Amino acid sequence: MSHYAILQTLNATLLASKSATQTLQKWCDDHHLASPAKIRAVRDAHIFKAASDEIRHILKVSNDEKVGYRSVQLFCGEYVLSEADNWYVPSRLTDEMNDLLNNSETPFGLAVQSLNFHRRTDEVLLLWQPVNTNWDQKTISFDSHIKPLDIPDQVLQHQAVLMTDQNVPFSIVIETYTKNIFLFK
Asked: Is 137 within the bounds of a domain?
């Protein structure tokens, strides 16, 4: 399967899924990236991004309501599969959920799964395409030297809103997937 087909497969799976964490967990397991195949969120507590007015509007919170933030890398074994900026409303989560988010490597989707949430993907960016724009208008060279694909570190980005089963938004996430999704063992 081509790299582009793999990227589109992950993209379609994420779009159809309630949880990116569950999708990455299955991806990790299906591609034998670690044993046991377990997704863990490594947080960088030194990074903080305040919620913009737009984020507050989408989350339906006032200017004085607290919005939490996590910057994490989601690992499968030793491989970073994605990096995420996540803004969330702590008052819409349980104390246990907030404790997990602040004090463990539990991925966000796993920490809040009891909310029976769903996600609405608002933006998808393909950060890499193996074929250049206007490829069909260029002269084709049948060079016998096949160049390896130059895949950037970041290949796909999703922006999504997580909502409770009552359609109350409680999180906005920007997930950036890495070229490590192409690792197969």
From this structure: no
